[in-house]
Design brief:
The complex is a heterodimer of chains A (99) and B (416).
Chain A: E1 3-6, E2 10-13, E3 18-22, H1 36-43, E4 52-58, E5 66-72, E6 78-83
Antiparallel strand pairs in A: 1-2, 3-4, 4-5, 5-6
Chain B: H1 6-14, E1 32-38, H2 42-55, E2 60-63, E3 79-80, H3 87-106, E4 118-122, H4 125-140, E5 146-149, H5 150-156, E6 172-176, E7 180-181, H6 184-197, E8 201-203, E9 208-214, E10 217-223, E11 226-235, H7 241-247, E12 255-264, E13 274-277, E14 282-286, E15 292-298, H8 310-323, E16 332-342, E17 349-352, E18 358-362, H9 372-385, H10 399-402, H11 409-412
Helix pairs in contact in B: 2-6, 2-9, 3-9
Classes of the chains: A mainly beta (99), B alpha/beta (416).
The complex binds zinc ion.
């Protein structure tokens, strides 16, 4: 089980949270102007990184706020969490990527 | 290839079973192939087999980064069925089930298909309506399906708890009698042996590290065992599809997640069918060794780690015990995880890509095992003819632009 650091509440068990997938996917500024390929990119295409990954979590059984986490998808190590709107902490080099 | 039969067994018994030949060669990679399949799981091996058998392609390599039967092919819970809702899915999964039914004879390898019947339980009025609708849709597509009420479920699977006082009572179930289970690693080994006999080079411990391209067309791969040229490349890499796609500059609508399974200690035969519940989220069958084989949903977070969180196991065992109180003292022996490639519409992608000569077969998510033969058969056609077979044409990458999604969350739900 992951121990996730909520920026407001501190470290809690994963069961208190819900996952929100890839972080930093910006909503289109002018949706009416989007081509089909751009909609596909926004709605469906995902980076699915193997290694350090910026992702959203919701502290649903706590403060009920969304925030971002940097986690390694191979080792499950969590590097840090940060509030919505903040810049992500500097990512470690991708050395930990491979098994 | 030595044909397996009762006579070969008898002959080898005379020499103490010391002279069985290897089931497939382990060749060094050639400098060039007509087709390279990336990924030596069931789907990749089946693709190679049908390419050689149905389309006469002989110069094929299957590149596997690990060993055969080390990935999802031997990590799933072996359920086989074809009772999907939409016409497109019913067609491709039913093609697969029909291939399953003749597979042991076709590849001269016992895959131990056991058509013991698959129940998909309904626990609410919504479930019941959806289940009945799916039964009718299946029948219209020529897929066998029946609706059972709660008493019918109890008759079919006597150990199930249909008490009305359960938190989520069993109200009925769909039944596909032709569904069941198969021996998963036999599928990898059997396809490997049959493909090898047709000249396919199966190269293990060979990880692809790059896709070489020239003028928008593939020219080969870089691997941990050197560069290999290829005219066409079929990627069948399941959880690692996005990693390979990135090497070729392609974006996929796929996220990789752990899917966990577990087995109990072996017990006497107690359940002779497959029971699945999307609502309380567990599925159970019993292996020939006597172990209860169980699974449920994915871990929510992205991962490439082949392991998940324990609370997911706790949750599914809670569901299991409500359905089968008789299992309360059974001890669990092992749990493990595989990395599944989930797609937004819970349907696969078998498709050309913007890169010429590069094809993807991925996105089977939690339910790929049952589709192994059909997936390989369709993908072989796609690679050979350079265009999809009508069975897999709807499962193109372009559907995420056109919006023609094939939403199978209901039928795929927990179904693996
Ligand atoms: Zn919080």
């Amino acid at each position: 089980m992951l121990n996730i650091d909520c920026p407001w509440c501190g470290k809690r068990h994963e069961t208190e949270f819900h996952y929100g997938g890839e972080a930093h996917i910006a909503r289109p500024e002018d949706p009416a102007k989007l081509e089909d390929t751009e909609w596909a990119e926004f709605l469906f295409m995902r980076t699915n990184t193997k290694g350090y990954f910026a992702e959203r979590w919701l502290h649903s059984h706590g403060c009920r706020r969304w925030f971002n986490v940097i986690r390694n998808t191979v080792t499950h190590d969590i590097v840090g969490s940060y509030k919505m709107g903040e810049k992500p902490p500097k990512l470690p080099k991708r050395t930990g990527d491979a098994k | 290839m030595v044909k397996y039969s009762i006579f070969t067994i008898a002959r080898n018994a005379l020499t103490g079973h010391q002279n069985w030949p290897k089931q497939w060669r382990s060749p060094e990679p050639k400098p060039e192939y007509d087709v390279i399949i990336i990924g030596g799981g069931g789907h990749g091996l089946a693709t190679a087999y049908y390419l050689a058998k149905e389309h006469g392609v002989r110069n094929i390599a299957v590149l596997e980064k690990g060993w055969l039967g080390g990935g999802n092919t031997a990590r799933n819970t072996t359920i086989v069925r074809s009772n999907y809702l939409w016409d497109e899915s019913a067609a491709i999964y039913e093609k697969s089930l029909q291939l399953w039914e003749g597979l042991s004879q076709d590849i001269n390898y016992n895959v131990m298909l056991s058509q013991r019947g698959v129940l998909n339980l309904a626990h609410s009025l919504g479930d019941v309506r959806e289940g009945v609708r799916r039964v009718n849709a299946n029948r219209l597509n020529g897929v066998d399906a029946e609706w059972l009420d709660a008493e019918g479920v109890k008759n079919f699977c006597p150990i199930i708890n249909i008490s009305k006082s359960a938190r989520h009572p069993v109200l009925g179930a769909t039944l596909q009698r032709r569904g069941g289970v198969a021996r998963h690693d036999s599928v990898a080994w059997g396809y490997a042996r049959a493909a090898d006999a047709l000249g396919v080079d199966i190269i293990q411990n060979c990880e692809v590290t790059g896709i070489k391209r020239e003028g928008g067309k593939v020219t080969g791969v870089e691997t941990t065992r050197g560069d290999i040229a290829a005219k066409k490349i079929g990627v069948v890499a399941a959880g690692h599809s996005s990693v390979i796609a990135e090497m070729a500059g392609i974006r996929l609508p796929i996220t990789s997640h752990p899917l966990q399974a577990l087995v109990s200690e072996p017990i006497k035969p107690v359940i002779d069918c497959v029971v699945m519940s999307g609502a309380v989220h567990v599925y159970v069958s019993q292996s020939d060794k006597g172990e209860l084989v169980m699974g449920a949903g994915i871990d929510s977070f992205n991962s490439y780690a082949q392991r998940g969180s324990f609370h997911v196991i706790e949750h599914q065992l809670g569901a299991c015990l409500e359905l089968f109180p008789i299992f309360s003292r059974v001890r669990m022996m092992r749990t493990w995880g595989g990395i599944v490639d989930t797609c937004p519409d819970a349907s696969p992608i078998l498709s050309r890509t913007p890169v010429d000569g590069l094809y993807f077969n991925c996105g089977w998510g939690t339910g790929g095992f049952k589709a192994t033969p059909g997936s390989g058969w369709c993908f072989a056609h796609t690679l050979a003819k350079e265009e999809p077979h009508p069975l897999n044409a709807p499962f193109s990458l372009s559907r995420f632009e056109s919006g023609a999604l094939i939403d199978e969350h209901g039928a795929a739900g927990v179904a693996h």
